[in-house]
Amino acid sequence: PKQFIEVKGVPIIITTLKKCLNVKKIDIIYIAIHPSYKDYLLELIQTYDIKKDKIKIVNGGKERLNSIENVINDIYTNFEIKKDDVILIHDAVRPFVSEKLLERCIEQTVIYGATVPVVSAVDTMYIVENGILTAMPDRRTLYSGQTPDSFRIPLLKSALDSLTSEEREFITGTAQICMLKGIEVHTVEGDSKNIKLTTTRDLMVAEKFFEEETMKACVLKGINDIECMLIEKPEVSAGNVLVKVKACGICSSDLNRVYRTGAYHYPTVLGHEISGEIVEIGEGVSQEYLGKHVV
After folding, report:
1. CA nearest 56: which of 27, 98, 23, 88?
2. How many CB atoms lie within 10 A of CB 178?
3. At what angle do helices 99-112 and 12-21 cross, to 10 degrees?
4. In three state form, how does the secondary structure of the chain look?
5. CA distance 65 to 164
């Protein structure tokens, strides 16, 4: 399956999981997967030090709709659901979804009940029948859909339970479930990097995105257990800046953490007393700081 393909040595699904785990508003992550791949997935989760306490694996269904129902049924079996509780249904092969987009989807879904992220169509679109161009829709009304499709959980369950056998036959997307039942699905501004990895060309683009979103770091995993590795580059929050490190000192406190006392938590990224260049700014920070050198 595509979600197990590696990009820069990391399985796609692991990158996606890490993005979702970074969002504090997400309480639990369900993964619907074919039973024959469950053990392999658990092995990957352990290999890449993914926190398992927020992950629940359920059997996937024959179709996407069946997998969603399996997750919803398990949620109602194990949790007390409130009317404003939200579910985000995301493609495992969209590993470059941002924390900001996930949070935006949650916030807007609490308000509207059902949302989907979209980006404006950039190409001219045609309607073709039997090889003949029959219409050219107004591009201003056309958008490319992304995930996560997001819903208040009770709203989605009600829509699922009311589907007829005929409706089930032609449903291809989650938002379509609500549209069939007359439920308004609001749009959320998507992200051009939130692409679905489907083709070989997508994987080539993904390698570039991965390089942009990761950085090298010395990571302390335990006393006398240190590894230089690629980790996710932090997103810049409001009022803060991102500094590209040009030089980094080694402090006596680093030596103590590595060889003697250890750290308060693991894994821990070592290194401070840095100098570098401001390469990204958060909301509310003046553009004049970009490119400035800091110590």
Report:
1. 27
2. 22
3. 60
4. CHHHCEECCEEHHHHHHHHHHCCCCCCCEEEEECHHHHHHHHHHHHHCCCCHHHEEEEECCCCHHHHHHHHHHHHHHHCCCCCCCEEEECCCCCCCCCHHHHHHHHHHHHHHCEEEEEEECCCCCCEEECCEEEECCCHHHCEEECCCEEEEHHHHHHHHHCCCHHHHHHCCCHHHHHHHCCCCCEEEECCCCCCCCCCHHHHHHHHHHHHHHEEEEEEEEECCEEEEEEEECCCCCCCCEEEEEEEEECCHHHHHHHHCCCCCCCCEECCEEEEEEEEEECCCCCHHHCCCEEC
5. 13
Residue among 19, 50, 3, 46 nearest 214 (CA): 19
Q: How far is CA 30 from CA 77, 157, 189, in A?
A: 14, 16, 24
Distance of CA 76 to the CA centre of its chain: 24
Q: Which amino acid is at 103?
A: E
Half-sphere exposure at residue 275, Cβ-oriented, CA atoms within 13 angstroms: 4
Token pair, residue 86, equals 């939200």
What single letter denotes the amino acid at residue 256? N
For residue 72, the model assigns a pLDDT of: 97
At which residue do the structure tokens 């916030």 appear? 107
The single-letter code of the amino acid at 30 is Y
| Closest C-alpha among 196, 195, 153 to residue 178 | 153
Task: Identify the residue whose tokens are 């690629």.
Answer: 230
- Please answer whether residues 242 and 292 qualify as being in contact, where contact means their C-beta atoms are separated by less than 8 angstroms: no
pTM of the full structure: 0.82
For the chain (295 residues), the mean pLDDT of every run of 10, in chain order, is: 92 95 95 96 93 94 93 96 97 95 97 97 94 94 96 97 92 90 96 95 93 86 88 86 88 85 86 88 93 93
